[in-house]
Amino acid sequence: MKQLFFYLSLLLGVGLLSFSQGTAQTKRALVIAIGEYKDHGPGKSWSSISSVNDTAYILPALRRQGFTGDDTRLLLNEQATMTGIRSAFDHLVRDAGPGDVVTIHISAHGAQIEDDNGDEIDGLDETIVSYGAQLPPRTATTDFETLQLDYFRDDEFGGYMQQLRERLDSEGDIVVFMDNCHSGSGTRGTAIVRGGAPPLLSPKFDAGRYRLQDEGVFQEPGSRGGGDNLASYVVISASRAEELNYETRDEQGRGVGTLTLAVSKALENLVPGTTYRNFYAQVQATVNQRAARQNPVIEGTGLDRELFGGDLVQQTSYFEVSRIAPSGTDIEIRAGLLNGLADSAVVAIYPSGTTSMEAGKPIAEGLVTRASNFSATVKLDAPLGLRHSERAKAWVFLKSKTSKLSPVVLAFADPNPTRGGISNHLSAAEIETYRAALADMPIVSFEGPPDLALVRGQYGPVLKMAGDGQDFVEVADEYDLQERIRDFTRYQFLRSLYDGDNGMLDIQLIPVVNGRPDTTAIPAYMDLGQYAFAPGDEFVLRIKNKTRWPVYVNVLDLQPNGVINAIFPNTQVHPPITPEELRIEGYGERLFDQFPIAIGPPYGIETFLFFASRELINLEQVATPKSVRNGARGVLTDLESLVSTAFDEEMTSRGGTSSSKAATSDGSISSVVFKIVEKR
Length: 680
Description:
Elements (H helix, E strand, L loop, with lengths): L1 H11 L14 E7 L17 H14 L7 E5 L5 H14 L5 E7 L2 E5 L9 E6 L14 H4 L3 E3 H15 L4 E7 L27 H6 L19 E6 L9 E3 L5 E3 H11 L7 H15 L6 E4 L18 E6 L5 E4 L12 E6 L12 E8 L4 E5 L13 E7 L7 E4 L16 H11 L5 E2 L6 E5 L4 E5 L5 E4 L3 H20 L7 E9 L2 E2 L8 E2 L2 E4 L4 E8 L5 E8 L5 E5 L14 E2 L4 E3 L5 E2 L5 E10 L6 H4 L15 H7 L3 H5 L13 E10 L4
Helix pairs in contact: 1-2, 2-7, 3-5, 7-8, 9-10, 10-12
């Protein structure tokens, strides 16, 4: 009690220093800190953690940013029962108004419990452990229905997030800091861990399925998407789903949450114009220094917005440093061939938080010496002056690319003319207009066997696949033609990546029969050794990791007409499929039976590309329109930029290709081809 009194006294004595905002906004905060849990007896009680100490850091930091008075609500220990938590969120939603800024900070144990509505890919909900919760037994329990009542589920949290975003409207802003843990892997070492208990399960839970599927991050599924009238949001979590969240020690030797300490330090040094993305880089650097095995996570729709309701800032794509060698001049980055980083690509290193190369001075420049699909090794012209634990303080920008793309050959004629049919050639004037629009695009050629043909369709110009005459896309005008050719180039590039070796993965397409995956039905969906599906058919994916280390899997669909669809991850579906959920343990497998894939036209040969990487990857942006990419980080797989500028003059003069074979130690690309037929 004396310790609690000391910290509350410290909080009340903090002065106020905040940055001015362009518009009047009410700043509201909800801080939940549970360090001492209800005593249920030996083996049934959650351990004590230092969450109350966190408030001595986060509350003063928020006060300095203008979160003061009656608009800041604090729940400590026994106040944070399920009733108390719900009441606090109800008040927050009721009091919030258009344009307000809301910060939510949660320091507590986290846990997983059996999903109650079928919306989780692994069958487990992520939760905040309320004050009255009992520690889950190590095995399934018949008391599940009673015990689960004291766990605050991600679905309920998501419901409150959605209500807040609606109340705050498009000018509002929400940031959530989650300093807890949802890993079920147990405690490592002697450090205090927030969470780490086994999942709370009922006897009916399918334990076999649980072993096959990985836990997801704590999400707010109800808050994703929803149109233009919702407030932006950002969630910063203490660790990835598969990691533990360790406590650290402050300068006085007191236990404190690693994320809380990092957030507080970043807020102390906050300068006007800092975006959430820049802010996260500072937080990440501190966490990496204090907990080497822990990696914080950021997600949301407001990453490039200035903190606490500020303006949106245009952020140039960048890459993260994954390793700094002792020499300081050799680094590895989380980007590779998928980013245009073949051998001899030139990069520049800037301090993290730099919005563009024009906005700052580089620390060093470097040359890519070895590239794989997902990573690259760089030799710098000067030491970074950073240790490996400080790698988050550096961002990598691409100065000049190399690529193995070949120009798209375009013809202005029907590749498959019908004898006696009506001419679908364009007029000479139309052809001249289109050729002029493409003249400055090195990715287009008019010489050689065509890849695409621009012809007159029923309602206007249409791009057709030259090989089989299938429609690729209708073209509105010459500017639209430029974009559609870039789309096709991206498609061709992805097809070129697969080298015929399904090294890391075993993959099955399992037909769905009578609403359930049925492996015995596979022969009925085969034609001469190849999968064949008709419109109306459905299948699910089963993916097995053949390696001993965990991998993250992404799946892209390349349609016969050149269109690219994101299968996994896909944040445009409900519930969203996030990159963090797509981890497969070493020698493990996943059955994605909650996400059946429905078949429809166009007919022809369809290709699924499976990207496996030991690092977290996100290829969704390859297929997702720019208009819905608000939350995409754009730092791991910037294929859009690669295709748009792959054939600039500098790159062409460098030869454009790399003669070295891509290294595959960090990942692989697998392929499954199937036919879409009118009838089976």
